[in-house]
Design brief:
The chain is an all-alpha fold. It has 14 helices and no strands.
């Protein structure tokens, strides 16, 4: 399997796992408070990763200490802020809207890459991105220009847009990851630092706002988001960036609305209309054009 194929598969799987997270963010808003969900999500990820990474983490402590500022910034953006904002956004908007806002991440990544890293965007890639955006606009408006002009955004949509900007910054920081940091050591420190930063906010929420009720549903949710939507997906996403670069990895994130729409149909009872199928086909076409050499 070539590096490109492997990178694309990794990014696809990470995107699918995060699509499930979008559905969870909207579907559990009455069951688990947002900071509580974020805190326990990363606590589970840390616990699962500890036996796999602890020895290498201790061995590489001098390297970690050398890059502690980089790890701190990466943890704050990608762990403490991004996912917590998603869960806050999920309280006031739908899973579908969350996925629509999520597609702004590749645009942020490509834009920042162009400005900061002077990364060129080919004419073919621009054509593909325009095709993708067209598909997304068709999805939002259901094929109606009037509906597109009259679209209203909830506060949760704006929070999700802000979260997307932070995740774009995180993705670009991953691109600059020091080579001497092993992937599992990098992930472990980022997860632990991000969780520790969340701890005082979780204690405040749990004391003054809303407690996390530990029942079978809660355990099932935090197990999924802690292992699959955190540990597995972040590893796959980070490796995809290394294998195929930030821009190509970012473009695959446009599949979020497709995955989320299908998942919402099966698990939240949301219907899939013909115009949504058309828009999904346009988005896939754009992805093919963008990744064509």
């Amino acid at each position: 399997m070539s590096k490109t194929t492997k990178g694309i598969l990794f990014a696809l799987l990470a995107t699918f796992l995060w699509s499930v997270n979008m559905v969870i963010a909207s579907g559990v808003k009455e069951h688990i408070p947002p900071i509580g969900l974020a805190f326990w999500r990363w606590t589970v990820a840390c616990v699962v990763l500890t036996p796999l990474a602890l020895r290498a983490t201790i061995t590489d402590f001098k390297i970690v200490k050398k890059h502690i500022k980089y790890l701190l910034l990466t943890a704050i953006l990608g762990i403490s802020i991004f996912n917590t904002l998603i869960y806050f956004a999920g309280k006031t908007t739908s899973a579908f809207n969350l996925s629509l806002m999520a597609i702004s991440i590749p645009l942020f990544i490509i834009g920042i890459s162009r400005i900061v890293f002077k990364e060129k965007v080919s004419n073919l890639a621009i054509a593909g991105i325009i095709t993708i955006i067209t598909g997304v606009l068709v999805l939002i408006s259901k094929g109606s220009l009037d509906a597109l002009l009259r679209i209203n955004f909830a506060f949760g949509d704006l929070l999700m847009l802000l979260a997307c900007f932070f995740f774009a910054c995180y993705t670009l920081l991953v691109r600059k990851k020091p080579k001497e940091l092993e992937p599992k050591v990098f992930l472990y420190y980022v997860f632990v630092i991000g969780t520790l930063i969340l701890l005082p906010f979780y204690l405040w929420e749990n004391t003054y706002l809303e407690k996390v009720v530990i029942d079978s549903k809660t355990l099932l949710i935090i197990s999924y988001v802690g292992i699959f939507a955190s540990l597995v997906s972040f590893y796959l996403w980070n490796e995809a960036i290394v294998l195929i670069g930030t821009s190509k990895t970012a473009v695959i994130y446009y599949l979020i609305p497709i995955f989320s729409g299908i998942l919402a149909y099966f698990f939240l009872g949301q219907s899939i209309e013909f115009i949504q199928i058309i828009s999904m086909a346009i988005i896939v076409l754009g992805l093919i054009i963008t990744n064509k050499k």
